[in-house]
Specification:
The structure is a homotrimer of 228-residue chains. Chain A has nine helices and no strands. Chain A has one domain. In chain A, helix 5 packs parallel to helix 7 and helix 7 runs antiparallel to helix 8. Chain A has 228 residues and is an all-alpha fold. Chains A and B meet through helix 3, helix 4 and helix 6 of A and helix 3 and helix 6 of B. Chains A, B, C: It is found in: Cell membrane.
C-alpha cells in the first residue's frame, strides 16, 4: 500500500465526510415519483462518501482502502446523519449542495489521480482514474435513484471540472511539484471550474440544438443561477 | 484462498441455486412496459445467483470464487431454468419469491461477512461487505430491469435485515463462537427480520410524510400481506 | 501479465477504436427526452471502447490492461471524436452501427474468453467472462443513457451471439487449435450470428405472448430489416 505516502487518513476521511453530508443533503431534497425513506437517504450519503474511493481502488486493482479501517464507514454514516439533520432547517440548501459537491469532486479526483501516479500508471490513465473516481459516485447515485445521469446531460460540466483538476495535478507532478501540493492545487482548480460553470450557467453545445437545456431545472436540486 | 475454510462448496452452491430460482421467479412475474424474453429471465436468475458472490469478492479484492469452478455457473443457469419451469403452475408465487428472497439475502450476507472476517477486515467493513453482498444482486436486477431500486424506497427494510444478521454474526465471532455456527445464526436472524417486516408491513419513516408507501404495490411482485 | 501472449496490442486497440466509433455513432443518434451534450457522446464512445476490457479484467481479478498504457484512452477518445464527426453526413447510420456492434461484441467476447483461458479458468467461467465482456459495455451504456437494457429485452440475441462465439473458441482450444486462430474464428461466429439475427429479425420467445416485440423499433437505432 503506497496510499499512506500520498493521502493522509485525515484528508481521505474529510472527503468521505463531506461526501456523506452532500449525499444526504441531495437525497433529502429529492422529490421524485417515489419518496426515499430515511435508510435510502443514508445509503446515498454513504454511497457518495465511499463511492469515489471504492471505484478508484477497483480500477487500480488494489484492495479498497475504504474497507481496511472502521473509520471510513463510521465517518460516512455519521456524516450522512449530520446531512439528514441539517437538511430541514437549512435555507440555502441548493447553494450548500453545489458547494460541497465541487469540493468533493475535487478531492476524489485529486486523490484518484495521486494514487494512480504513485502506483506508476501512465499520465493519461492517471487522469482517467481521477475523473472516474470524481464523477463515479454521482453516476451510481443517479442510477440508483432513477434520475437522469447528471454527467451525461447538457449543462453539467462535471467531468470537465474533474479532468481540469486531474490534468493540472499530473502536469505539476511532471515538472517536479510534490504530489501533496499538486493535489491541493488540483482540488482548487476543479472547485473553481465547477463553481464558475454553475455561476455562469456554462454548458457544452448540445449534439443538436432543438431542445433547450432543462436537466438542472428538472432534477430540481442543481440551482441555475443565471439562465440565458 | 481462505474461502474453503469458511464456506463449504455445497453451502455456496445452495445460495447460488436458491438465488437462481428466486431471480427467475421474480423475472417471470415481471409485467413492465416491455416483456423480458426467456434469455432475459435466465440472465436475472444468473445475476441473482452469482451477483452476491461476485460483488463480495470485488470488494474484498480477491479473485471471484464463483469463476474458479464450473459448478457455480452450471448451478445458477440450471436453477434459473427450474425457476422458469415452476413459475407458471405456481399458485403462491409471491409468497415463495419473498421466502426465497429472505433466505438468499441471509446466505449472501452471512457468507460475505464471514469471508471478510477470515480475510482480516475490521468489524464495520465486514458488516458492510455482507450487506452489500446481500442486497447488491437485487440492486443490479432492479437497475437492469428498469425498476425502482427496492432497497432505496419506503417499505423495503432489505438492508436492515441484512445488517442485523451480519452484525449478529460479527458479535458472535467476537465472543468466540466459531464462524460457521455464527453464520447459520446470522442467516436465521436476517430471514426472521425480513419476513417479519413483510408480514407486519413494517417500514422506516419516509423522509417526509406526504406520500403513502406504494412501492411494493406498484412493482407488483412484492406482496403486502397487511396494509395499514 | 499473460495478456501479451494472447492479445496483441494492435488487436486490442482495434477493438477499442471500433468500440469508440460505434459508441459515439449510437449516442449521436440518440433522441431521448433529454439531449446528450458533446461530452456525453464522447463518454459513451469511451465507455463502449474501454468497458469490455475493464469488465473482463475486474472479473478476472487482474490489473485493468486498458489502464497500463496511454494508448487505450487516446484511441478510445480519438475514435469517439471520429464517430461524432462522421455521424452527421452518414446516410446509412443504422446499418453501420449494427455492423460495428457485431464486430465489437465479437472482439470483446473473444478477447475476454481468450484471456480467461490463458489465466487458467475452467471452460464455463471462461465463456461467461467473454459474454459479460462482450455485452457489459452495452449494458452500462443503456443504464447511463436511461434506455431499456437491450440485452434483457425481446429481439436482441446479443448474449446468444456472444456465447456462440465464446463457446466455439473454447471448444476449438480444447481440441488443440491455438488461441489466436480460435479467437479469430470465435469473432467471426459471433458476428455472423448477430448479423443473421438482425437480418432475419430472429428473437427468442417472450415469456408470455401478449406483447409484440417493440424494443428495437422504440429505441430507434436498431434497424428491423424484416418484420413479421
Amino acid at each position: 500500500m503506497h496510499e499512506t505516502f500520498v493521502i493522509p487518513l485525515w484528508a481521505d476521511l474529510t472527503a468521505v465526510g463531506l461526501g456523506g453530508v452532500q449525499g444526504a443533503l441531495f437525497a433529502s431534497g429529492f422529490q421524485g415519483q417515489r419518496r426515499l425513506d430515511l435508510l435510502g437517504v443514508a445509503i446515498i450519503g454513504i454511497l457518495i462518501g465511499m463511492g469515489g474511493g471504492l471505484i478508484r481502488d477497483l480500477l487500480l486493482g488494489v484492495e479498497p482502502a475504504t474497507l481496511q479501517s472502521d473509520w471510513y464507514l463510521v465517518t460516512a454514516a455519521g456524516s450522512s446523519l449530520v446531512g439528514m439533520l441539517i437538511a430541514r432547517p437549512l435555507q440555502r440548501l441548493n447553494r450548500m449542495i453545489v458547494g460541497l459537491d465541487a469540493v468533493v469532486i475535487g478531492m476524489f479526483g485529486a486523490f484518484g489521480t495521486s494514487k494512480a501516479i504513485v502506483l506508476g500508471l501512465p499520465v493519461v490513465p492517471a487522469v482517467f482514474v481521477g475523473v472516474v473516481a470524481a464523477v463515479g459516485g454521482g453516476v451510481l447515485r443517479d442510477v440508483i435513484m432513477g434520475l437522469p445521469v447528471a454527467v451525461m446531460h447538457v449543462g453539467s460540466l462535471y467531468a470537465v471540472a474533474a479532468a481540469s483538476g486531474s490534468t493540472v495535478l499530473v502536469l505539476l507532478h511532471l515538472v517536479g511539484v510534490p504530489v501533496p501540493l499538486a493535489a491541493v492545487i488540483g482540488i482548487a482548480v476543479t472547485c473553481v471550474v465547477r463553481l464558475l460553470a454553475v455561476v455562469f450557467d456554462v454548458s457544452l453545445p448540445e449534439q443538436r440544438t432543438l431542445h433547450r437545456r432543462r436537466v438542472a431545472a428538472e432534477t430540481g436540486v442543481i440551482p441555475v443561477v443565471r439562465r440565458r
